[in-house]
Amino acid sequence: MSHGHEKKTLRLDEVTIPRNHWWNTFMVAGAVAGVAGIGATFALGAADHHQLYYSYLTSFMYFLTLALGGMFFVLIQYAARAGWSVVVRRIAENMMATVPVFAVLFIPVVLGMHDLFHWTHAEAMEDPILKGKESYLNQEFFLIRAGIYFAVWIGVALYFYRSSTSQDTTKDLQTTRRLQAISAPAIALFALSITFAGFDWMMSLDPHWFSTIFGVYTFAGSVVATFAFLAVFSVMMRRAGLLGGVVTTEHLHDLGKLVFAFTVFWTYIAFSQYFLIWYANMPEETIFYRHRWENSWANISAFLALGHFVIPFFFLLPRTIKRNATTLVIGSLWMLFMHFVDLYWVIMPNHHKHGVHFSVIDVTAFVGVGGVFLASFAYLTKRHATVPLGDPRLPESVAFENF
Amino acid sequence: MVSVPKDFDPRTYDPVEHRAPLVLGDHDFHTVTESIARPVEWKPPIGWYLVLAASLSLLGLFGVAIGYLVWEGIGIWGVNNPTSWGWAIVNFVFWVGIGHAGTLISAILFLFRQKWRTSINRAAEAMTIFAVMCALSFPTIHVGRIWLLYWVFPIPNQMAMWPNFRSPLLWDVFAVSIYGTVSALFWYTGLIPDLATMRDRAKTRIRQVVYGFFALGWRDSNRHWQHYEKAYLILAGLSTPLVLSVHTIVSFDFAVSQLPGWHTTIFPPYFVAGAIFSGFAMVITLMVVCRSVFKMQHLLTYRHFENMAKIILLTGSMVGYAYAMEMFIAWYSGNPYEQFAFLYRAFGPYAWAYWIMVSCNVISPQIFWFKKARTNMAVLFIVSIFVNIGMWFERFVITVTSLSFDFLPSSWAYYSPTIWDVACFAGSFGLFLTMFTLFVRYLPMVAIAEVKTVMPQANPHHASGMTTATGGH
């Protein structure tokens, strides 16, 4: 457990991405894919606006939840004064710092409001139940709320990002103390904003339907995918020699444990929602699952239960799987895939009510938003050290061992 | 420069705040054993007998209340139609909730490598088991015909009657009894090395035989420890989902129904957060007292209390989040019955109970944003009492408000408890306190072997590194 003496100098150049490294190509490829993907999405979607915006929203939510999950990871590490995670925290910080890009990526959602949200239509609001929600579900307040969410996220993300990266050189203890102090209130803001963003951007796609757990559901999916993303990039960057050799099997093991634990947590939340609605069998609630059990949607629903829980549960359970970089990456990539299936399953049945209709726009939107996200992530990674060099708990993290 | 101090010790090492050690003062393994064993080995002070007498009196009251209940029937309670679930269910959920902290501390904090759990886990687990006993007594007596209780078990009988497997009340039987069993096993497993310590220290033959019997021949050998550690990890892994499942099932008792105020999807995680919240409050209540009565200031330090206060703040805020979600979605749903249920909770005849709940559970823990409050024993004690009260009222609000104003206004009725409701509830504290009073007298209330592992002497690099973590008795 304690390993004295391992004196090792971690120099800045060991944790900086070299000029001619493939990481630069990765970044450029991401940017190209982003522009091409979003361009193709709009070109192909010109004929079918509904498909365009639904596909776009799915991918937007997918990558946004990754960025927000990164924020949650950073906040929770500070709040818990965690030592083990310092060597991988910068990856999450870079995910988190892409949030301002999503404020721009949100523009198509605003443009597509009429195609996405039934409640934006005046005639829809003649429905007495929707009429009652008008003070919440109206375009002005919807946009104001979106503004508030982004203000909170950008504020928190940039504050933590700038403080942490500046600590690389200042090595100031005070920075850590300050971030620790504000991490807990920031978590409260995070919880409320992701909840209502989930209500606004996913739950209100069917304005009649409601579920008190939906905010927690949004959060649970986001966090699983984030831990998986962290595991994948920790392994990838470690193999590319970009992390200064400080990320060890021990850190991967812990990330694997978190992927596993939150896979179960997601299942717990998803099951709670499903089970209570199934049991009470009230039409205004069961409609959500009714749509998702219609024709080919039933296959996706069954696949979600199997692929988001049963398979990863047994796959990730053994210790050896989590301590082997290759198998950990396989499990994590699978969870990243399943997170997309989850969001697709939440969002898309509002458009294709009677069965699954895969569209090429689903792919172009994913490539587009994903390209922009990964390019931003790669760019941010390049700008600073890949490991928080000035964090006072870095030595503890380097020496960390599971026992 | 990446370097780790030579005597790097993850238990106390922290470059930012220089964490306080988990065992204060100039203690070695032997003095720690002495200080923990003292209340078990010394002649108890008169105060202990007084507390035991008071607890036993309450326990007697419980017996009388139950006896009369069995004789007369549950009509002696205030339950009416439509409020057919009264204090009995409220008390059941209250006690089950309290029974969550112990196993959470032992299992989940263990998996999260929270070393500070070692000073509090033993007493908290004991509290868990006693709370589960109190909890189980309420559904047991609520069935009315107690002698037919065995019907809840799926055993064939001559009437070919099987329990209704679709009823969450039946799941409760399984969930709570499995939880109680595993918690007791977990607690006992952790006790074995300490029972051996007590055996070896025994001054009387009877003590030696009894502690020795339960110590299962523990000899502190390397092989024993290897088995022990493995068993502990496995039990921790098994207990973690159990901790969550119990209150999830309890929440199903309400949430699978179609009753406004009961049927809402956030109930499972909301109940689990509430259970941890109330459990930690009870741990603080008991530990503040034990700390000063048994002179355990060096083991139950400010750092322990500060951490528990943070958990109270976190889970209290989660409960507040759930209240807010219920309110918001009740409005958002557009369902007039749902809206009515929540409006009546907050502003109807039970508004007093609702606002007690909100003030105690959501507002009072907010004081723990301040370190001064988290490290002040008086504040900790008072807030923990508030939380205990608030969590009882939460279950009261949920159970009673939804039932007493149902869909048909002609059947509405205000629910009031009778003296027998009060007697049963007060009596359950008698059971709880009797068990706890006996526990602190006959078993080491801090895990001796475990607490030694968080002392600097347990570090192989420690200057006096000749001692072993388990020695000293």
The global form of chain B is globular
How many angstroms separate the termini of chain B?
43 Å
In DSSP terms (H or I, runs of 4 or more residues), the helix count of chain B works out at: 16
Spans of at least 5 consecutive residues with low confidence of chain A: 1-5
**Proportion of residues in helical segments of chain A:** over 70%
What class would the helix/strand composition of chain B place it in? mainly alpha
Chain oligomer state: heterodimer
Number of domains of chain A: 1
Mean pLDDT of chain A comes to: 93
Percent in strands of chain A: under 5%
CATH homologous superfamily heading of chain B: Formate dehydrogenase/DMSO reductase domain
* Radius of gyration of chain A, in angstroms, nearest whole number: 21 Å
* Number of distinct beta strands of chain A: 0
